[in-house]
Amino acid sequence: MSAAVHPVAFNPLDPAFVASPYETYAALRDDDPVHWSKLLCGWVVTRYDDVAAILADPSMSSDIRRATPNPIVRIELDGLAKHDRAGRTIVHLDDPDHARVRKLMAPPFRVREVDRLRGLVDARVAAALDRLAAATGATGSEVDLVAEFAYPLPVEIFSRWLGVPDEAAPRFRYWTSWVARSRDPMPAAEREEFFAALDAMYRYLEDQAELKRREPAGDLLSYLVHAEDGGDALGHEELMAQLITLYMAGHEPTASLVANGVLALLHEPGELAQLRADPGLVPNAVCEMLRFDGPNQFVRRVTTEPVTLSGTEVPAGDILYVGLASANRDPRRWGADAGRFDVDRTDADDHVQFAGGAHACLGAHLARLQAERFLTGLLARVDGLELAGDPTWSTRMFIRGLQSLPVRCTVRP
User: Fold this and answer.
1) What is the pTM assigned to this prediction?
2) Interacting residues of 365 by C-beta distance below 8 A, sequence separation 6+
C-alpha cells in the first residue's frame, strides 16, 4: 500500500463531522483524495472521477468475504458466520448471483409500475398533512417534521405496497432502525441487538410470505413470492434477505432525503420562494436535494485486483469507502458553485446518489416519486414554514439524516 502522510483527519464520529461532513470532504478531495483510514481499515475515496470509475468497474466486489481480513472485516465475518442470512442480500452479492436475483426482483420497480403508486403516496401524504393540521391548529405551532411527517410516511407507504398490515408499521420502524445500521461499522456489543432485530423482522416477514404464498394478492410481496424467470425463482432464504433489504432501503433514505431537503430550503429562503412560485421545478429540486445533501454518503466496495486512484495504488482485497456525497459536491465536476443549493441547477440529475453500474439503486424511481409528492404536498398546504430550533443529526456514517427537524408552521385543511 502506498498511503502517504497527510494532515487531513477523517473521523465520522466527530460531532463537527456529524453536523456537516462537507468541509472534511473538501479537504480530502484537495489534499488526500484516496485517504487511508485506520479507524475503518480502508480507503476513503472522495473525488467525483474516482467515485464514478469505481461504480462503473465490474471488477469491484460488494462481498465483504472477498476482503483481506482486518479487524473490521473480522467483526463482520464473525457475525455472518452466526447469521449467514445477512450476507444473502442483493447489495452484498456479486454477479452472476447479483444479476440473477436482480432480474427476478426488477419488474415491480420499473418506472411504469412505480408510477402506479402515485395515488397511494398522495393519499398518505394528504392524511399526514391532515394530522399536522390538527396538531398545529389555525394559528400554527411547533412540530418535529421528522417524527410527524418525513419518518413515518415511507414506512406506511412501503408496508402498504408490500402488503403488510398498517398496524405492523411501528415494529418495522424499530427493526429497520437497527437493520439499516448494518452498513456502518458497528461495535461487537451492538451487533447482538442488530441480529435480534434482524431475526424478529425475519420471523414476521416469513409468516407474511407464507400467507401470500397461499393467498396471493396484488401487492409486492405476492409478486416476489411467486416471481419466476425461465423456471428460476427466489429461494426461501433469498426471498427473506431481499425483503429485509427492501424495507431498509425503502424507508430510511427516503425519510432523510425529504428532511435534509426541507432543511436546505429553510436555509435558502430564496430557493423556497422560487419553488413555491414554480411547483414545476419540484422534480429538479429533488435531484438537487439528492446532489446537495443526499442521504447516501458512502457505498462500500472491495478491490479484487490492484487499482490506481488519483495516483494512489490500492492492493487487491482492500476495502473502499466510496464517497457519493463528496463526489456530488466536487467542484472538479460541478463547478465553483458546487456547494450552493440551486433548485433549477441544469445538471442536478447527474448526481451519483443512487450509485451506478450493476448495483445502481433498484428503488431510485420510488424514492424520487415519494420525495416529489411529499414536497408537493408540503408546498401546497404548509404556510409560514420556519425553523423553531436546532436540528439534530444522526451519528450514522453511511446514511446522513436528521433525527429531528423542529419547525413552526400552519397547515391548511
Assistant:
1) 0.92
2) 109, 110, 111, 114
